[in-house]
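User: Some background: our group keeps a shared notebook of sequences we're curious about, and every so often someone picks one and asks for a predicted structure to add to the entry. Today it's my turn. The entry only has the sequence so far, pasted here. Could you supply the structure so I can complete it?
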Amino acid sequence: MFDFSTRMSGEQPVRMVLPQVEPHPEPRTEARVILRRLWRGSGFIVLGALFMVAAAVALLGLIPPRYTSSIQILIDPSDLRVVENEVNARQPQADSGVSIAESQVRVIQSDNVLRRVIAKLHLDQDDEFVLPDGNNPTIAWIKGALGMVPPAASRDPVNIALDTLQTKLSVRRAERTFVIDVSVQSRDPEKAAKIANAIGDAYFAEEAAARTDTARRAYDALTGRLGSLKRDVEQAEGEVVRYREAHKLVASSGRLLTDQQLGDLNQQLVTASIKTAEAKSRLDQARKMRSSDPSTALPEMLQSLEMQALRQQYATLSRNTAELATRLGERHPAMAEQYAQQRDLQRLIQREKERIIDTTQKDYDRAAASEAAIRTNLDRVKTETVSSDRAYVGLRELERTLEARRGVYEAYLKRAREASEQERLNTTNVRIISVATPARQRTFPPSPKIVLPVALVLGMLLGGAIALVLGADSDRRRFRRASVRPGTSFRAADA
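Assistant: Of course. Here's the predicted structure to add to the notebook entry:
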């Protein structure tokens, strides 16, 4: 075996330096390492925050501010029922209200409405909506070479202002409502409010003009047809009159005279029959009461004033007679006089009954005679009616034709008058529930209260990121320098 501990004479020991190999360490991500790197790079954080704040302040100063003003328009799907039959009346179904509101959103954004606004506020002469052409020939040549110069027909100031206004306009409907928000942006808050209010007025004017135009077209179409319908009605009326004269059909209040007589006689016959039956009933009751006792209750028809007085006397006498019979007895001489008075009153009552029966008999005879006369006249009128019914068949046909033509003519005439009135009425159930006012705060760019804190946070994040990157690079370089150290010496013989 080799003895590595034996020294070799005459030789100097050889020293070899070998690098100490250590395993590659993993990157340290502990919180203290990150904090240490951030602390060493705190200058970058401060500089990043200051830089972003300065850039935000510069941008806020360079970007021109824009202001937004809005109006709110309520669109009711059901219009005002000013006229019973409107030319273009809306009858929305249960699920069509949203469609109507969305359609009105498109109407507000239409060119017709916006052109009214441009003409009212002279936006075609405003530099904000119609940018003037530049005088730099180089820029003009570059635009021409790139095809960015519009043709001459598209350089109308009104069209340019219309395109610009559409980009600055926002129209939307709030969810689950019929309220439409109309917003306009401008560099001047008062101008934005004026444009928004002008859009509302222009929308109302456009809706009124559309309805007026529709009503006018309907009126023109109806009046053009009225002349022909009027001639048809006059022709039908002439045929009816000539037919009546030829067949001697006399009419009154739209009915033939024989028909009126027949109806009147039927009604009279019914009334006469009722009166005859009532008279017969009274006569029968009166005859039944002829042999009744004077103290028996009489029907209402027999209750005359004389009969009431006689019955009252008879009742008083009967009561006195009963009292005397109780005190004096039935055989007392005074009772004979009482009985004689009772018999006299009975004869008077019976005589009054006969008179009433005779009067009732006469009433019945008159009622029966009147009913017979009415029946005779009714039979005669029936005979005349049967003879005129054949001629009346043709008359009814002519009258039906006349009524049909007259109904169409009157409907057209009424509709034409309603259409004429609707030219002066606005039945749209639309109103502005919120007018536009000049905005107190700008819409873009955002407020410095928002931009500066955000810029500060972004600058600090940017500086922190730079500090972490530089710190990590510094730690890697330090680790590499520390990993190379002197090795242990040993002899070659040991090797």
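Suggested note for the entry: The domain at 64-218+429-444 is CATH 3.30.1890 (Bacterial polysaccharide co-polymerase-like). The chain has three domains: 28-63+465-475, 64-218+429-444, 251-422.
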